[in-house]
Amino acid sequence: MFLENETWELCPVKSNFSIAQLHEFRFMGQCRSPSVSPSRQPESTELVELCLFEQYLQGGNPFEMQIDNKEEETEDVLASNGYESDELEKSVYQDYDSDSDVPEELKQDYVDEQTGDAPVKSVSRETLRSRKRSDYNLNRANAPILTNTTLNVIRLVGKYMQMMNILKPIAFDVIHCVSQLFDYYLYAVYTFFGRNDMYESSGLGLISSRLRTTLSRIQESLIDMVSPHASPEERKEKVPSPHLSQLVILTSSDTLYGLAERVVATESLVFLAEQFEFLQPHLDTTMPSAKKPFLQQFYSQTVSTASELRKPIYWIVAAKAIDYEQMLLLMAGVKWDIKEIMSQHNVYVDVLLKEFEKFNQRLGDVSRIVRIPLPVSNVLWEHCIRLANRTLVEGYANVKKCSNEGRALMQLDFQQFLMKLEKLTDLRPIPDKEFVETYIKAYYLTENDMEQFIKNHREYSMKQLTNLVNVCLGSHINKKARQKLLAAIDDIDRPKR
């Protein structure tokens, strides 16, 4: 219910938020160490009670002590309008909020009708607003990214752990349930934001075999796919696949295809995984020895894969954020069989760089809504640059005729692209840079070198390699030699098929 109604907006918590501040985890500070036997426990409680009565023997009220401790009981984890404390918020607002409709000059101690001068001490509303803004950004800078649902899952984990502490014989069953909570959250985030058929064709290995195995395991063991062969008993243990709230729009280019929601969802999962890592030693102590491998497997195969979801989820944004198709069309219009060395790069390079500038600007717009952590921005830039570089190679592989001077122009274009791109991003080294450079340089290879190149460079498609043979070597090798090279390409491609 929480996941299907979640709009994946930021739940504002303080920058120093820790799960230990939640009621549900208070027991971790109080619980006795597992080595103390329960039978010896009551003596100490009696002792404490005795001390308490002795303390108030002469006078005073023991119930007043509760009032003193009231603050400890109240949970204070939410940030108020992005501020660390209510005081900070009040200090910014109080100057202008209470009488914000009253004109500034009427709030002054006196009004000089001739000069209209304001008292020296008055602070302009604009200054206060900017102070509010900067405070907000400052405090948001390191606040964890989580949602209302994340907070509720964490609370449930706390309640489960309390049960494990009290009912040790069923600790394993409880941990099994806790692991299912995490499994379902991970599966929901992937289903909502990461599922896409284009991955396989991209050839970028976006989903690791470990993550693929984890997702398959969750789907088989936990998700009710309404299989006709499943028995009622099997289905009773399963839950329906979750559906994304209709309020979440992931198709608009203005919002970078729901990037804010994607960041909140993915990073809240990463945050949840970090909390599970933090709780591992505690869970380990309550676990029976025979069942510890289950816990270890859960951590190594599921919890540790949370951050791996970044690649497929942000790839969808990167694939749509830049118009790679337009670039291919522009490249197709370039004449590459030129007879002189050019000093000016082609227009398609400027168009591509404009797309990257626009992407950078939109990324800045989204970061005003939700903080974009460095690993996220790195993944986004990496995807965009990889896709652009692969599009460049695809464009060069579509060339029908090319001269030495034309190949030199390709190098000039690529160097111009790299030079300007490095000013837009701090990502180093530029991803897939060698992928483009190696392909351009392959034009100059001899027949024997080309055969070796074909065997060593399986990252290029059959079409891209065939183009190298036909266009680059075509003019200076005989038909028999060309057939031999094309047969070598075909041999490489056969195992894939």
TrEMBL record:
Alphabetical GO biological process terms: endocytic recycling; retrograde transport, endosome to Golgi
InterPro entries: Syndetin_C, VPS50
Coiled-coil residues: none
A matching Pfam family: Syndetin_C
Domain (Syndetin C-terminal): residue spans on this chain: 256-490
MF-aspect GO terms: SNARE binding
Annotated GO CC locations: cytosol; EARP complex
Protein name: VPS50 subunit of EARP/GARPII complex
Species this protein is from: Cyprinus carpio carpio
Lineage of producing organism: Eukaryota, Metazoa, Chordata, Craniata, Vertebrata
